[in-house]
Write a structure and sequence with these properties.
The structure holds 2 protein chains of 2 kinds. Chain A is an all-alpha fold. Chain A has one domain. Chain A is built from 7 helices and 1 strand. By secondary structure, chain B is of the alpha+beta class. Chain B has a single domain, classed as Winged helix-like DNA-binding domain superfamily/Winged helix DNA-binding domain (Arc Repressor Mutant, subunit A), CATH 1.10.10.10. Chain B is built from 4 helices and 3 strands, in the order αβααββα. In chain B, strands 1-3-2 form a 3-stranded antiparallel beta sheet. In chain B, strand 2 and strand 3 form a beta hairpin. The chains are: A mainly alpha, B alpha+beta.
Chain lengths: 195, 98
């Protein structure tokens, strides 16, 4: 049998891998948060100006722009790091699930013309919970708080029905800013400062 | 005094480094493992092959030639083998301190 200090090898290797796996700047959150904020904000403004049904379909641009952009960013990141940590996999899996849910609920509810009821509050809620889970995984308090506030706004927007339904779009835009954009900007600053 | 048998497949510095790294990560590619272990490409390739043959890791290969990309991921069998190895290793210290 080979003669080497196995415990030392285990400890050193694990330490090095932990260092390499430290979270770096987050651009995926910024990407999806900004896209959601911009297009749901535009939906709201569009409806205020044109009062046209097509305004409710502006959200389709979010996956159309976001998915290819995300694939490019992930490939670029893997090309730099050459590995993926378990934490980033958990977060990625949740967001793939959430994005699929957004798309399905969007098409089903908008397709049947019942967008005024549950689709947008559900999206707001999923975004808030996602930010909360991500914050817990990263142990980053602003994201945890932002996620909780976002989830609360998402749930609160269930009350915006009837003539108020278009305000649900604005609520989702606010959730995106509160739970994704702002915490990510804090997180990136935190990483850059090396705290 | 009886010592637990150390898994000979894991009791190799290079293979152990690869297994510990993959145990801590979701997946890693050949370049990462090569930089981490500071092994030569040939040696690392041989040792990865042995771990794959034992069912301890899964290797996903894409492309061919110079542009080929190899990604490794630990299997449940690999995780339990590494756990057993660590337990066996610690038993040496426990028994020597008794």
């Amino acid at each position: 049998m080979e003669d080497f200090d196995a415990l030392d090898v285990i400890a050193r290797t694990r330490g090095k891998v932990d260092m390499d796996g430290r979270p770096t700047e987050d651009y995926l959150f910024l990407l999806w948060g900004t896209l959601a904020a911009v297009f749901y904000g535009l939906e709201f403004l569009c409806w205020q100006v044109f009062r046209a049904e097509w305004c409710c379909w502006l959200w389709v641009f979010i996956p159309l722009i976001g998915v290819p952009w995300m694939v490019i960013l992930l490939k670029k990141e893997y090309a730099q790091t050459h590995m993926r940590t378990r934490d980033s996999r958990i977060v990625l899996d949740y967001w793939i699930f959430a994005a699929a849910s957004f798309a399905v609920t969007g098409f089903v509810f908008d397709g049947f013309g019942v967008h005024a009821l549950y689709a947008l509050p559900l999206m707001g809620l999923l975004m808030g919970i996602g930010a909360f889970i991500t914050g817990e995984v990263l142990r980053f308090r602003p994201m945890i708080v932002g996620g909780l506030v976002g989830a609360a706004i998402g749930m609160g927007s269930f009350l915006l029905r009837g003539d108020l339904w278009i305000w649900q779009s604005l609520a989702v835009a606010v959730v995106a800013v509160v739970s994704m954009v702002i915490p990510t900007l804090f997180f990136n600053k935190h990483v850059k400062d090396g705290i | 005094m009886e010592f637990e048998q150390l898994n000979p497949l894991l009791h190799n510095e290079l293979r152990l480094k690869v297994m510990v790294a993959l145990d801590a990560l979701d997946d890693a590619d050949f370049v990462y493992l090569k930089n981490l272990t500071k092994a030569t490409a040939g040696n690392l390739s041989v040792q990865i092959g042995k771990l794959e043959e034992a069912g301890y890791i899964r290797v996903f290969r894409s492309g061919g030639g110079r542009g080929s990309h190899t990604v490794c991921r630990i299997t449940p069998a690999g995780i339990s083998a590494l756990l057993e190895y660590q337990k066996a290793l610690l038993s040496y210290f426990r028994q020597s301190s008794d």
